[in-house]
Amino acid sequence: MAGIEPRGSLVRLTAHLADGSPVAADLTLAASVDEGIVPGRSVWLVVKAAQVVLYPR
């Protein structure tokens, strides 16, 4: 994982996929703490398709 940015009641995680593509995900601060997420740690990203929002570059 590349970084964590506070966003109100959420945190935005930024990461790079295995092919180098960037990805960002918002989750609750509690979830990030429960999972021990810190910059530099490898993580698995799993999302519900119904909750995905894509933004153009």
Apparent shape: globular
Helical segment count: 1
The helix content, as a percent range, equals: 10-25%
Radius of gyration: 11 Å
Give the SSE string. Answer: EEEH
Structural class: mainly beta
Low-confidence regions: none
Kindly describe this structure.
The protein is mainly beta. It has a domain at about 1-35. Helix content is about 10%, strand content about 35%. It has one helix and three strands, in the order βββα. Strands 1-2-3 form a three-stranded antiparallel sheet. A hairpin with a 5-residue loop joins β2 (about 10-15) and β3 (about 20-30). The longest helix has 6 residues, at about 30-35. The chain is globular, with a radius of gyration of 11 Å. The two termini are about 20 Å apart.
Helix-strand blueprint:
Layout: E1 3-7, E2 10-16, E3 22-28, H1 29-34
How would you concisely characterize the structure shown here?
With 57 residues, the protein is mostly beta strands. The protein has 1 helix and 3 strands; from the N terminus they run βββα.
Q: Key terms for this structure?
A:
globular, 57 residues, three-stranded antiparallel sheet
